[in-house]
Amino acid sequence: MDHHHFHGKDIPHIKLDPKMKIEDIVEVYARSGYNARKLGEAAKLYSKMIKEDAVICLTVSGAMTPVGIGGIIQTLIERGFVDWIITTGANVYHEDHFAWGFPVKQGHYEVDDMKLYDKEIVRIRDVFIKFYETLEAEDQVIQKMFKENLIDKPFTSAEFCNLMGNITKKKAKFPERSFIASAYEYDVPVYAPALIDSSLALNLAVHRFRDKVYNLDFVREIIEQAAIVYHSKKSGVVELGGGVPKNSAQQTGPLLDQILRRDDGGQDYIIQITDARPDTGGLSGATLQEGKSWGKVHDAHQDMITVYADSTIAFPILALYVLSKNKSRKPKRLYKKLGKYYNNLKEEFLKENPSKFYDITKRKSS
After folding, report:
1. Alpha-carbon distance 291 to 259, whole Å?
2. Which of 38, 44, 246, 296 is catalytic?
3. Is 366 contained in some domain?
4. 45 is in which domain, residue-wise?
5. d(CA 91, CA 81)
6. How many whole angstroms separate alpha carbon 103 and alpha carbon 134?
């Protein structure tokens, strides 16, 4: 796109009014510059996704739920503004503390961690979690959940989280404090592709020693994710941070096009909130435009916005804007459709590729 002209909006001499609403401040951001402008544009793009009835994936890296962000995710699910989720095991694990009433407190980052260890306090930056009253109590909950469930049969992390949501919804003290419970209620698939890299998986060790086997079907999982995109007229992602959740959502395009030899993959819209640098070559900081070369996005020139900011600051503004601006949508209830989506994509692939092996000479070449 050619931006070499003097036709842009006038930069406002910003005036704030005590009566301003979130829509007003986002409009101020969007007409400003730097990352304020990007945040304003991102909020408007999220609203556009909703209005155009896109299937929206939320990816959440790191540990966002210990600071309460799960409550925002829950509200977006209930309003129909998030249709499926890819996150870390840590976010699922720590979110469950709130539902069961296990304490999570504000602490401080200027501390002696040797003293915290002696006091049995675990620290995530300036958030304090009790070792026994919270972590070990949560471990007991997880261990009971999976003592007799998902054993000796393949399962996806979406099935794992759906089971957690089911039990939390029915048995937890405060199920209204859990986005996992709401995801179960609204049939929103929650994938934690790096399940092994979390306390969720660690708690299965006690059962494995008693010869109970857990088989994570990671291949079905990636196919299900691609099948969601395949069945979506419009598909978008809101990315909080990078890492495995970001790549899992974006690799749906390469799976559909590079591996399954289709020509319809890639996301229509992506919003990325990140503090990672692009020049180090890491996926977390990779620009959305770079993803076009991999077939991760449809168009590198539009509906792709990166906001360089702390997600704990930017995401609440983004979410509140769409909650204020958009009417609730009917839940898409994708979880119940995953089997059908998988089989449709499988049948289409086998029909177009009856041979067991690819003929690389038949591929299009530039």
Report:
1. 16
2. 296
3. no
4. 22-353
5. 19
6. 6
- Measured CA distances, 21 to 24, 50, 292, 312, 321 (Å): 5, 20, 36, 20, 9
pLDDT in tens, 169-178: 999 999 999 9
Q: How far apart (Å, rounded) are the C-alpha atoms in residues 335 and 159?
A: 9
**In this structure, are residues 238 and 204 in contact, taking their beta carbons and an 8 Å threshold?**
no
pLDDT digits (tens, 9 = 90+) for 126-171: 999 999 999 999 999 999 999 999 998 999 999 999 999 999 999 9
CA distance 204 to 196: 10
Task: Please check whether residue 319 lies inside any domain of the structure.
Answer: yes
Residue 6 and residue 182: Cα distance in Å, rounded? 48
Asked if 351 is an active-site residue, the reply is: no
DSSP string, 50-77: HHTT-EEEEEE-SS-GGGTTHHHHHHHH
Residue 2: band (very low, low, confident or very high) from pLDDT cuts 50, 70, 90: confident
For the chain, how many residues are written?
366
Beta pairing, strands 235-240 & 215-216? unpaired
pLDDT at 158: 98
* Dihedral angle sign, alpha carbons of residues 325, 42, 333, 79: negative
Confidence (pLDDT) at 358? 62
**311-325 and 22-30 are packed helices; what angle lies between their axes, rounded to 10 degrees?**
120
**What is the domain-level CATH number for residue 68?**
3.40.910.10
SS (H, E, C) 125-173: CCEEEEHHHHHHHHHHHHHHHCCCCCCCCEECHHHHHHHHHHHHHHHCC
The verdict on residue 200 lying in a domain is yes
Model pTM score = 0.94
Closest listed residue to residue 105, CA positions, set 138, 72, 134: 134
Task: Give the model's confidence band at 201: pLDDT under 50 very low, under 70 low, under 90 confident, else very high.
Answer: very high
Dihedral (CA of 259, 263, 264, 267) sign: positive
Find the helix packing angle between 89-100 and 157-171, rounded to 10°.
Answer: 10
Q: What is the number of domains present in the chain?
A: 1
User: Residue 257 gets which letter from DSSP?
Assistant: I
- The residue with tokens 């790096």 is 194
